Amino acid sequence: MSLLKGLHHAALRCCGKEEMERVITFYCDVLGMKRLRSWGEGTSAGSMLDTGNGVIELFADAEPGRKPGQVDHIALATDKVDECMAACVKEGLQVLMAPTDIVVPSEIPYPLRIAFVKGKAGEIIEFFDEK
User: What is the pLDDT of residues 61-81, one digit of tens each?
Assistant: First the structure.
């Protein structure tokens, strides 16, 4: 019996409220997430966004010039990798890997379509489609 229910959220620290609002605008207006709740002012601000089956939690208290943390990327499940990438390119985001079909050579081959971009706060976003 597992003690866990599943992944609840990934957290992203933004450099101030202005950067956090740009991140919220991108995830909500471009990718279609919904803001669940927000709190605080200035560097004490935070917000939670609904991904559809989990949450991205945002904080406005990162120091400028921050280094990436232990979390490598945020993987968002989608069956529209190409459309997500087109929306990101339109937003001017840096493409780190164009949409690519791969097969992970696991015990049972695991076919995927994936793509990566650099987000509004420097986060790495993966669009992930299980085939």
Answer: 887 776 655 566 899 999 999
Mark out the alpha helices in 1-131 (DSSP H runs): 16-25, 81-90
Sign of CA pseudo-dihedral 14, 120, 102, 7: positive
pLDDT digits (tens, 9 = 90+) for 103-115: 999 889 999 999 9
Is 68 within 8 Å of 52 (Cβ atoms)? no
Q: What is the β-pairing status of strands 34-39 and 94-104? A: unpaired
Please state the length of the chain. 131
pTM over 0.85: no
Nearest CA among 89, 69, 84, 86 for reference residue 126: 84
Q: Which domains does the chain possess?
A: 1-64 (3.10.180.10), 72-131 (3.10.180.10)
**SS3 call for 61:** strand
Please state, in angstroms and rounded to a whole number, the distance separating the CA atoms of residues 92 and 86. 10
Structure tokens at 117: 């971009």
Least confident piece of the model among 68-72, 88-92, 94-98, 111-115: 68-72
